[in-house]
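Field reference: "sequence" (input) and "structure" (output). Example, Sterol desaturase:
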Amino acid sequence: MDNIVSLSVILFIILASIWEWQAGRNSNGKKSREDWGMAVIAAFGLGAVQRPALIFSIAWLGTQLAPHYQGSLGWLQEAYFWPVLIAYIFIEELLHSGAHFFSHARRPRWKPLLVVQQLFKMGHRPHHFSGGNDGRGELSVTQTFVEHWLFWFIMPNFWFQFLCLYLGLTEVFLIGTVFKGLWAAHNHVNWNYDLYFLNHPWPWVRKTMRGLCHIITFPTQHHHHHARGKNSAKNMCNLLALYDWLLFGTLEIETEKPSQYGWKQSPKEEHSIWYRYFAIDLKKLG
């Protein structure tokens, strides 16, 4: 079941990567050697270590704490499949975007919460590196799954996904997770088709697209989250811009591509994929 989810997203990423390569979207410093290296190490870590570890953890905790709940909600998806699927997507997206918002939020004053936030910030930071410090880097589809090794273990939406699987929502898990994974990957591809509609000469097309951007997250919205500047703390959602608009106040709709992608990197971060992937600054946790 989990293999189907992974393979669906991987196939899309491979096809999008081929398109990016053929279209020249990775050349001239848009994607560095370190970007490719991080894609390889993050993909291996996610597929071989993190997802299996999360599945095992949920299964073990379930059998230890609540074995009688295993598969207990299977009847729910049989009786109310579409409402349960929609609820799954909305809850999963809320957990993901909420944790993502927390990763970018201002520093809390309460020390224990600050320590937790620092872990989230460290875990998420590699996701915002594009190219080198020369400002030529751009977003690529392989950045979809590039994170610090820690991030996947502390994101609540991943625990929620596998908890639903443990509870018997197998079809809901499969369809909901594939849909969300594909949409998130599509938002990281180096294209900006939504700008065609946002800048269309017909007003009703522009207004319709702008309205849709308040509900669904499109590529350019997420590209601006990957920009170096004020918009890097905007557009937290991978799928439902509703939360950016109504809950977090972080919705930002632009009518052109970002002028510069990627956060500034330290010398170690710029030149070492191992430092990007494994380093934890203990001083920030003190």
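The chain has a mean pLDDT of 94.
Residues 2-188+267-285 form one domain.
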